[in-house]
Design brief:
The protein is an alpha+beta fold and 187 residues long. 66% of the residues lie in helices and 16% in strands.
Length: 187
């Protein structure tokens, strides 16, 4: 009987140890769950921060590309305006040469040369038109945006402030004045 009591005591003791162990494991498991939850939240926060940085970086890069594209358009327009502005002086020279020849009888040999000048002038005019260069045609009333007054003259036929004569043609390029027309203005 003593053996039975001893076995019973050992069984109770074993059950009690098992219960304590289970309690320790469950509290340890709860502690691990809380730590895992905290770690998970930290990872989620970090992932959100990285996602936000990524989205901002993409947006900044897109804005950068747009700015660079706009800058390139401005640089191209400026370079074109400079080159086309220099071509205007050459066109003026051709127009003066052609105007000098129109009122004169020339030998056939020189007439052929002037016809070549006229063809070259036409080609330059086509080139200017192709790039959107337009002659300023508002030459009735003086406008400081489109005209540069070279001198004032007395004129019975014109009102004060009216353009009397265009001394050098003016041109626009893409809606902006490339070169103002040089004019004489009535007093």
């Amino acid at each position: 009987m003593n053996d039975k009591v001893e076995i019973k005591n050992k069984a109770e003791q074993h059950e009690q140890e098992h219960a304590e162990l289970s309690q320790d494991q469950s509290s340890s498991s709860e502690l691990q769950d809380t730590e895992l939850q905290k770690e998970l939240e930290a990872c989620k926060t970090m992932a959100d921060e990285w996602k936000d940085k990524y989205v901002r970086s993409i947006a900044e890069f897109e804005n950068y590309k747009k700015r660079v594209f706009q800058d390139q358009k401005i640089w191209i327009g400026t370079a074109q305006a400079e080159i086309l502005g220099d071509l205007l002086d050459i066109v003026d020279d051709f127009e003066r040469a052609i105007a000098q020849q129109e009122n004169k009888e020339l030998p056939a040999e020189l007439t052929v040369w002037f016809e070549g000048f006229a063809l070259t002038h036409q080609s330059l005019q086509k080139l200017l038109n192709k790039f959107g260069v337009e002659e300023i045609t508002q030459n009735d009333e003086f406008n400081p945006v489109y005209h540069e007054a070279m001198l004032q003259v007395d004129s019975e036929a014109h009102e004060s402030g009216a353009v009397v004569e265009v001394m050098q043609k003016g041109y626009r390029f893409k809606g902006k004045v490339l070169r103002p027309a040089k004019v004489s203005v009535a007093k």
